[in-house]
Each structure stands twice: as C-alpha cells, then as structure tokens.
Amino acid sequence: MISKATQFVVPIANKPGTLARLCSVLGDAEVNIIGVFVPEAKGRAQAARVMAVDVAAARAALRKAKIPFSEEEVLKVELDNKPGAFGEFAGKLAQKKINITHAYATTAPFARAGVVVAVSDIDKALAALKQKNIWDLGPPK
After folding, report:
1. What is the spatial distance between Cα 47 and Cα 12, in angstroms, rounded to a whole number?
2. pTM
C-alpha cells in the first residue's frame, strides 16, 4: 500500500528534553505519533520529523504550544518485511530519476514494514509506482 502523507518538520535543539517536550505536547493533546525521525546533529540545532495519525490535531497542538514547524508531503509505503524489499523499492524510484531525500522505517517481526519516504517529486513518484508491473503496493490513497 502507498499513499501521500503529511509529516511535521520541527526545529529542536540538540539537548536533553527537547524531543520529550515535543512528544509530550502531542501526547497531552491526545495525538498519536506514528513516526519520528531525528537525525544526529552534533552540538547544533536539528529538525525532528514527526508523523501523526490526526494531522489537524497535531497542527493545533503545536500552534497552541507555540512550537514552530513546517509541513512536508511524503510517501507512506507498506513493504514486505523481507531482505531486499526496500532496495527494490528505492531502485524503482531511481530508475525514474526520483531522488529520495530522506527515509525512515519501522517494522516488527513477521509484520509488514512501514516506510516514510521524502522524494524530489512526489507526484512523479506516485505515478511511477502506480504503473503496471512496477511495484505491487496496491492503489494510492
């Protein structure tokens, strides 16, 4: 399965408690977080990328807490949890000259893998992945 999704990009300081505050603000607003990506940034500010079930509620909670953020459209992809699945998926995008700017994934044993992918051209990526015989992910939502 593949669909467009919104993730929040939140600048945070690289120090104890900043990620906890961000996640607590969302949790206190009853917003369920389904994805978080915070790359290492040695001694400098960084950006957390957060995906929530309820985008509108997350947006409202961040605004109420005066936490600055931006939004970006990404692909939410479900892949088989097996060796090579993500490589095959990434290869299909590369064949169409679509760059993956960042990605993160989660999985559990014997479950399907959930992958969030930011690409250089989201509509082109969706079109490429919908083509017959390109990838069996199911229809985009």
Report:
1. 6
2. 0.76
